[in-house]
Amino acid sequence: MTLGLLFAATFAAAALATGAVLRWLRARDILDRPNHRSSHTVPTPRGGGLALTPLMLAGCAGWFAVEGGGAADWAMLGGAALLGLISWRDDKAPLPPLPRFAAQIAAVAAVLALLPHAGISGGLLPSPLETAVAALAWLWFVNLFNFMDGIDGISGVEASAIAVGLFVALPGAVAAGPLAVVAGCALGFLVWNWHPAKIFLGDVGSVPLGYVLGYLLLSGAAHHPAGWAAALILPAIYWADATFTIVRRALAGKAIWRAHREHFYQRAVQGGWSHARVSGIVLLGNLGLIGMARLAGFGHPWYGLLGGAAATALVLALFARRHRHPVE
Asked: Of 78, 111, 112, 191, which one is least surrounded by beta carbons within 10 A?
């Protein structure tokens, strides 16, 4: 009952706060104007994270205060707040990559120094290598979550699916309160971001959200014998799309740090599918991944990984096929 009330309250607060932020952004003409890299066609307010990020951090802080959060939990909230401030500055006037990446490294390193992460890899890696891999994976996840926030609805779908998936697949391994808060915030924002979107997250939303989700995934890996497998499975559509795309661009000699429209999901939109249809397919794929993560969490990590890889490959193949055979 407590979790249900927390989710409902967070959902309602996020929906109301996003509506208020939408009006504030419009009044100040803070808009994402379409260009040749955009997947939208009309100027749309950017900065919905001004509603989502403070609510997400406040909700998690309230849970940690009541239930007794550890040092890593509080450090994570501080890191997310830092990244939110820097990202809002970047939304208003683009910053060079170095200060943004330096802040991400500091936020990740501070938490990993406090997180009891022995066993994150399920014993597959020695401790020093495990720590290095965890740091790189978290940094990559923060950035890929930002990269993948390119069409209406997709990040709200992904964030809520990961939060629900951790609750279902690794019961007790991750604090349930933050999962309810993240899911509520993501779905409350989705009320305004579903196609056609009236507002976008902006970096102020996508970067802290990716950071918090990365922490929750690592927490699940650290506190459950098969958590490492579930942590790989649940965000598989996002990390596979982003990773394959960046490798493909690098092999083609393109600047991998520049904005583009070459992700699998973006190509499906270019092929004629609506944002709602593409985000809906991502949702369906994530439901399959939640099932595979649960299989992994209940003692069958390798079967879960195999099934998760198949579900992810199917989603990306559908997107690639739509790009090759566009709607006339």
From this structure: 78
186-223 tens-digit pLDDT: 999 999 999 999 999 999 999 999 999 999 999 999 99
User: Burial code of 229-259, b = ≥16 C-beta within 10 A, e = fewer?
Assistant: bbbbbbbbbbbbbbeebbeebeeeeeeeeee
Which of 237, 214, 233, 240 minimizes the C-alpha distance to 117? 214
**Which residue, chain included where needed, has tokens 């849970």?**
63
- Residue 264 predicted with pLDDT over 70: yes
Q: Per-residue pLDDT tens for 100-136?
A: 999 999 999 999 998 875 578 777 788 788 889 999 9
Query: Rounded distance, CA 53 to CA 68, Å?
Result: 21
Q: Which residue has the tokens 């090759």?
A: 324
The domain spans of the chain are 2-235
Please name which of 172, 171, 173, 177 lies closest in space to residue 65, comparing C-alpha atoms. Answer: 177
Cβ-contact 46, 91 below 8 angstroms: yes
78: left (phi over 0), alpha (psi -120 to 50) or beta: alpha
Identify the sign of the CA torsion 179, 76, 309, 124.
negative
